[in-house]
Amino acid sequence: MLEDHHAGPKHDSLLQVRSEDDSDSAWLVSYIDIMTLLVALFVIIIVAAEAANPGWLTHEAMSEAPPVLVEDASATLGVPLPDAFAEQAGPVYVAGATEPGELAAWAISAALGVAGLPDRAPVPPPLLARAKASVQEPDAELPAMALPKLLLADSADLTAPLADYMLADYMIVLTDRPPVNVQTVEPEALQGGPTLAETLPERQESAPYLPDLDGVEASRVSEGINLRVQNQLLFESAEAGLSDAGEALVASLVETIERYDGDVSVEGHSDSRSIDTEEYPSNWALSSARAIAIVQVLEDAGVTTGRLRAVGLAATRPLADNDTLEGRARNRRVEVVIHVE
Fold it and tell me: Where is the OmpA-like domain (predicted)?
């Protein structure tokens, strides 16, 4: 029988399908996969950093980086400097450099430039409009301040327009509680004088203020402001010691007193009935002791001592008839007169 001499080479060609030259290229597949994963990982990191701090890789952030002081330039560069440069002593300022341990933004951008920077999310138009509106808004014009209501005594004749010369006969004061026996001046009555619109506001600015305090009757007198308090709100009968409520009431006068710089006269008044006790042998002694007690409270509350005066007037200046019970009660009082220049 004849043997087939081609059987061996045919088996060899089937077993040797893979070439020996391709044995070293198998690792490339795994390397490319790893590099792809690394690039994707860095892209995710950059996107997350941009979302947490927008604009961290922009050129403006890099250009505004503060310069870092480098004492030895050759140590920074890693190579020795020529003698001509080494002779120039002094620190070197490197713009845009970072502190030790920090990674420069431009280095990250250069290293990952192939991936590109992530796009910044656009700002919605309503937010832009709101930001522009909040940058600078002109101050709204304040409304014109209304003048206080003008009141005159019932005896004043307002049938004719109010002329300027009539205001000189009246003393202008400001108060929260209108007094009795007054009438309101209508705006039409203020058209009488050509300069009344200018004169009245000026006089109101310089007019004294009469406070509205419980138990205190405030009035305008020639010396300035009179704060009148009835004795039953301050003292016990035939006594000069202030009660707790009386001390609180006197302390409430301090704010009004401190508005002005003039002297403060505390005047004690009594009715016409005589008094003869071991401590107060007369109304002069009682009225003076009550005035001194109020001066001491005002001094303790902070009123300057040099401004205070204590005066006992007994029954020399009655307000009402001492023959009636109501009249005597009205005459027993203390008046605090604030001298206003």
Answer: 221-341
Q: Which helix (H) or strand (E) holds 277?
A: none
Name the pTM for this structure. 0.46
Q: What average pLDDT does the segment 22-28 reach?
A: 58
Amino acid symbol at 194: P
Q: What is the residue extent of each domain of the chain? A: 32-119, 151-207, 210-339
- The fold of 210-339 is 60s Ribosomal Protein L30; Chain: A; (3.30.1330)
Residue labelled with tokens 């008094």: 275
CA–CA separation, 341 and 338 (whole Å) = 10
Give the single-character DSSP code of 334: E
Q: Is the pLDDT of residue 151 over 90?
A: no
pLDDT single digits (tens) 287-316: 999 999 999 999 999 999 999 999 999 999
Q: Are strands 333-339 and 264-269 parallel, antiparallel or unpaired?
A: antiparallel
Q: How many CA atoms lie within 13 A of 217 on its CB side?
A: 12
CB within 8 Å of 146: residues ≥ 6 apart: none
Give, as one character, the DSSP assignment of residue 20.
G
Residues sharing a CB contact under 8 Å with residue 312, sequence separation 6 or more, in sequence order: 267, 268, 284, 285, 286, 287, 288, 289, 290, 291
Structure tokens given for 87: 């002779």
> How do residues 87-138 score in pLDDT, each as one tens digit?
554 554 444 445 555 555 555 555 555 444 455 555 455 544 555 555 555 5
**Taking the alpha carbons of 74, 77, 79, 83 in that order, is the dihedral positive or negative?**
negative
> In 3D, which of 281, 276, 278, 267 has the Cα closest to residue 319?
267
- What's the sign of the alpha-carbon dihedral 105, 107, 110, 114? negative
Is the alpha carbon torsion for 128, 129, 134, 138 positive or negative?
Answer: positive
- Residues 6 or more apart from 308 whose CB is under 8 A from it? 263, 264, 266, 295, 298, 299
